[in-house]
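Reviewer 2 asked us to include a model.

Predict the structure of this chain.
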Amino acid sequence: MSIQTHFDKFNKKIYLTSHSAGYRKAKEKDEGIFEEIKKAFSDAGYPVIETFMQGSFAVNTAINSLDGDYDIDRAIVIDAENAPDDPIAPKKIIKEVLEKRSFKDPKIKKPCVTADYKSINLHIDYTVYKKEKSFFGNDVYYLAVGKNGSSDEHKEWSESDQKGLIEWIDSVDDYFMGALVKRRQLKRLIRYIKRWRDVNFSSEGVRQKIFSIALTIMVKEQYSPSILSDEIKDDLVALKNTIDGILDSNYIVKLWGSEGYRIHTKLPKKPYRDVFQHKDNSVNVDGSDLNTGMQLKNKLTTLKNNLQRAIDEPNEIKQCEILNQIFGDDFEIPKKDNKSSISGSALAFSPLSNAGASGTSQGA
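Predicted model (structure tokens):
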């Protein structure tokens, strides 16, 4: 059995689709909430003209959460001609709807309205856009930016090409031969790196600052299969090459005169901002905070080294042990069939339970 077979099994275990039972329940809740939002927006004078899903489901890279949570990320679009001058106004309506629907303390954040459901593991983010036609006839979207209490200079309708970002992630223009096969591998690599993040960052605060969109952009930009072949390398080698590219690129920047690092990742579409932008003494600073930057740099370096160990390891079971330490117990370790002869080379494999002896490494 090849190591790719084990990666395929791992991908199947972590891959969250719209057909997953838990997600279907979350989706039903979302659909009911959305209908209430549509009515409330219409009553307020700015009817919803469009909606679309954002985030990992929009680009087919969603994974099963370690804690069983389900995330819904929906865009709600109104016509620019009907949109209120105050971008916070429609967000307040969403907050009111969520408060009536048993969500815990809905919050209006700068880019979205966010809340957690009380009785099921459902986290929801709703963003509001207004849409107009440009001079050239194409659709232009503006994101409602701001939160309760924001002064006028900190709230706006900001041009944001979310659909362009989704199309960029899905694009196969750079892959040429075997493009669709390569895109499927890219999506698998993104799922792997997201699960690696969830397993290896034990600090909830830091884990939440390693944004999925940042990992997706870095993997997309550094994934480089041969354009002249319709065959792809195995996932282990492809992931190692991609991590090499991330570490060798300019995402990680050492601060001058300091031992600290920041991680920088720019959106490839408008508004082209740094995904890791954060506030420092009430001032927007590009890049991550120093703690997040140092941890991500060190753990990516460890990941690179451990992937190379797995590549160099000739024994398949030992390879899987290394990968189990990297990705957690959903990457199963096969075991030798006790009935196999000592001299025989054939191995029979069966998955270990989640209580396997190797455990889940939090520091790999």
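The first strand starts at residue 48 and ends at 53. The two ends are 25 Å apart (CA to CA). We have added this to the supplementary material.
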